From TrEMBL:
Family from the record: Belongs to the GHMP kinase family. Mevalonate kinase subfamily.
Domain of life: Eukaryota
Subcellular location, record wording: Cytoplasm
Lineage: Eukaryota, Amoebozoa, Evosea, Eumycetozoa, Dictyostelia
Enzyme Commission code: 2.7.1.36
UniProt xrefs under InterPro entries: GHMP_kinase_C_dom, GHMP_kinase_C_sf, GHMP_kinase_N_dom, GHMP_knse_ATP-bd_CS, Mev_gal_kin, Ribosomal_Su5_D2-typ_SF, Ribsml_uS5_D2-typ_fold_subgr
The protein's name in its UniProt record: Mevalonate kinase
Amino acid sequence: MISNDNNTIQVSAPGKIILFGEHAVVLEKTAIAASLSLRTTVTFTPNDKNRLLLDLPDIPDFGIKEWSLDDFKKLGHFPTDIDPLKPIECNQDFAKELTNFIDIKGIHTFLFLFCTLTKCNKAMDIRFSSALPIGAGLGSSASFCVGICAGLLKALDIYACGGCEQCKSTSEGQPCNQQLNLINQWSLQGEKIMHGTPSGIDNAVSTFGKALTFTRKNGYSVIENGIPPLRILITNTKVSRSTKTLVEGVINRSKQFPTLIDPVSNLIDTISKQCITVFDQYHQDKDYDRLQTAMDLMFDMNQHLLSGCYGVGHSSIDTIVSITKSLGFHTKLTGAGGGGCVITLLKRDTTDDQLNQLKNKLVESGFESWEATVGDPGVLVSVIPN
Ligand SMILES: Nc1ncnc2c1ncn2[C@@H]1O[C@H](COP(=O)(O)OP(=O)(O)O)[C@@H](O)[C@H]1O
Ligand SMILES: C[C@@](O)(CCOP(=O)(O)O)CC(=O)O
Ligand SMILES: [Mg+2]
């Protein structure tokens, strides 16, 4: 089998929007997500210096850092006995050692995955570049984790399938389903360091792409006919926030007030399931007006439940909801909320002038927006000839 020992590997993984069910999905309910055309790209280039070079241009003040691989191997809880084909959570003692090593949350995630999958036996220059806004609800953390896992497994020729033609290909393409499942499960372990208690929807949609329904119990299910041709505008509030903190807040509220919050979560679950029904109806009758009416209502309902009941709204989100509503559009937050990004349902016949009027009103309030393309392929892997 051709080894990738001396090859440069390139990976790209998409971000996502959650149409319905964010946070509720952490509480075992149904959510619907779709991949975005905005992606994180990672290159893995072998070096002969026994060093790890990490280039993170999207993280302010990080730039490029280098370490000797021996620096990691001498950590007391360095993972030597983990089978890369059997994903497991980061050992808490190792996580603490990584925190002491460098106190940047995302770097712990990277170093956990790098040390666990490579055992620090492969010196590499690893460079990231993302088209996604970081920390804005579009799944940048998941695309970060999926990119790391897919690239390292390929660079080390670790294949859940044993190395099928599809996975050994050098041209850009998706790994086989067995390998995608391995990438997805390792990425979830990375997300656990990021978020604490991720549902797994973000890494699933970044791995498999397209559009999917998700529950923690049953995992993902690709929406076979895909999402109807909805037009979605993404607006970034540019308000930074912590997904981990927001997720913890909803979990604590649901534990403290179960009789109040459980019905809310059940209603969001109903909204997600009704969305699938509405999609199926559209694929049958192509009645776009009925689709639009139902989606507009569900957007409003989910937004108000997230903001008023889960407490993950923000004044900047309320401002965008109000601006878009004044022009006849419906908006909800996507991802963890508390700032970050929101999604607005355009009409099928929204003209360029109407769209520009909407965008200008948002710009006047300090927000940038762009029309999303959803349903992109999941993680893509290729070998760059040296
Ligand atoms: N391209 C990247 N380079 C470095 N770190 C990244 C990148 N993308 C995401 N991250 C990590 O993920 C964190 C954001 O994750 P999160 O709070 O879940 O927001 P999001 O909604 O974007 O997933 C960042 O603080 C950083 O640690
Ligand atoms: C809030 C949540 O449902 C989605 C988090 O999305 P993001 O990390 O803000 O892009 C958490 C989860 O499902 O893990
Ligand atoms: Mg995230």
